[in-house]
Amino acid sequence: MHDVHREITRWLEPLGAKVYIDAAGNMRAIYPSRETAASGLLVGSHLDTVPKAGAFDGILGVMLAIACLEALGGEKLPYVVEVVGFSEEEGVRFGIPFIGSRALVGRVDNDLLSVQDARGISVRKAIQDFGLDPREIGHAALYPETCVYLEFHIEQGPVLEKLGLPLAAVEAIAGQSRWELTFLGRANHAGTTPMDQRFDALAAAAEWITLVEQVAKTTPGLFATVGSVEARPGATNVIAAEARVTLDVRHRDEAVRSRAVEHLIERAEGVAQHRGLAVRSIQRLNQPAVVMDSFLTSQIEEAIRNTGCTPHRMVSGAGHDAMILAEKVPSAMIFLRTPGGISHDPSESVAIDDVAKAIEAGVRLLHQLASAPTFHSRTCRA
Ligand SMILES: [Zn+2]
Question: What are the pLDDT digits (tens) for 238-250?
Answer without folding.
Answer: 999 999 999 999 9
